[in-house]
Amino acid sequence: MNIIWVVLISISIIFSIINGRLDELTKSIFDAAKSAVEVSLYLAGIVSLWLGITKILDEAGLIYRLSNLFRPIISGLFKNIPKEHPAITSITLNFLANVFGLGNAATPLGIKAMQDLQTLNKTPETVTFEIMLFIVLNTASIQLIPFTVIGILSTLGSQNPSAVVLPCIISTFLSAFFAAGILFVFKRFYTNESS
Amino acid sequence: MKVVNFISLLIIPIFILFTVLYGFFKKVRVYDSFVSGAKDGITVVIKIFPYLLAIFIAVKSFQGSGAFDFLKELPDRYGAFAFLNVPIEVISISIIKPLSGSASTAIFTDIVKNTGPDSPATRISAVIMGSAETTFYILAVYLGAVGIKKTKYLIPVCVISDIAGIIISILIVKLLF
Questions:
Q1: Which tens digits make up the pLDDT trace of A101-125?
Q2: What's the mean pLDDT in A49-66?
Q3: Which ipTM did the prediction report?
Q4: What's the pLDDT at A142?
Q5: pLDDT at residue B5 above 80?
Q6: Considering CB atoms only, which of B11, B33, B131 is closest to A141?
Q7: Is residue B70 less than 8 Å (CB to CB) from chain A?
Q8: More confident residue, A134 or B71
Q9: Which of A1, A8, A107 sits opposite B155 (nearest CB)?
């Protein structure tokens, strides 16, 4: 992240000097600060809402049942999570929210999953393989129906907006599969180097 | 189409109704339980805020400086990506999608308007929109929420997967349409 941040900021400032857009740049930086606050406020509401909802499900015992149902799949992928650990449930809920395209529920539930995964982390400042796998699968974004895209297509007069659904599904699964594959390849090389 | 829209609108309300009723019949003190769960929300967001700010500043200044426009026009000007044989619009959405959700939605809308709702550029962009994520936002938020600083090989894996995901999207659209 360090390098990416330095590169983005340096390129931006050098470019704005060349293009004579320093005033736009300054404006953008302050805009960014403003929208970070706005997004955080929005997130505060949404995260609290979903944490509240999951707490009800938790106390009603449904979370426990749900994770029983999905445990075989999640445990198969995340080998180092103990069978009764709450991380299994929060990962399940995050994946379900992603699959059904509930974007604003997926992030809060993902944060919950991160916190649960972090309780298993013996070196809190360094990522574990489980955490990396979880993030990689999230950035590959397994999603069944891209509602936003279909919405835009149909408003702008597409003959058949749902034609993109099938290619999206295939592509989303393939890229998630591929992403996990790359992670496993990196894992192999990384352990080889350090041993 | 209307059915799909209706179902998408229905999922969240039904889920909340189900949660409240299920909890109620399981004799959970639903209201107190909701409040006690929700009180952690603010602490999480306070932790995330500085990370979010850092990402936003980087992405917005990149857009504001004109570097982003340059990147968008690059393939057009030099034919740099001509060998890929894809519409140039696809390149710009591929670069922006991992950085910013709102900017990519705006660009996607532009592509649909400019090239038509059923053009190849629209199709490919739609699949990229539907199958890629705002990677850097997710990284900042998720890692920030638990305060992880050392990321080992996570970032390179994410960047490679993003590129792979875009190539997969392009190939699939070319095969299917």
A1: 676 778 888 999 999 999 999 988 8
A2: 84
A3: 0.84
A4: 75
A5: no
A6: B131
A7: yes
A8: A134
A9: A1
Judged by DSSP in three states, A133 sits in helix
Long-range contacts of A172-175 (CB under 8 A, 24+ apart): A172/A140, A172/A141, A172/A142, A172/A143, A172/B130, A172/B131, A173/A142, A174/B168, A174/B172, A175/A140, A175/B131, A175/B132, A175/B161, A175/B164, A175/B165, A175/B168, A175/B169
**Is B120 an 8 Å CB contact of chain A?**
no
Of A102, A111, A186, the CB nearest to B142: A111
Question: Could you tell me if B84 lies within 8 Å of chain A, comparing CB atoms?
Answer: no
Compute the nearest-CA separation of B8 from chain A (Å). 8
Chain B: give the shortest CA distance to residue A110, in Å: 7
Q: Where are the domains of chain A?
A: 48-139
CB A26 within 8 A of CB A52: no
Contacts of A115 in chain B (CB under 8 A): 44, 145-146
Quick check: B172 and A170 CB within 8 A?
A: yes
Residue found by looking up tokens 């938020």 in the block: B141
pLDDT band, very low/low/confident/very high, at B74 (cuts 50, 70, 90)? low
Any idea which residue has 């199709």 for tokens? B123
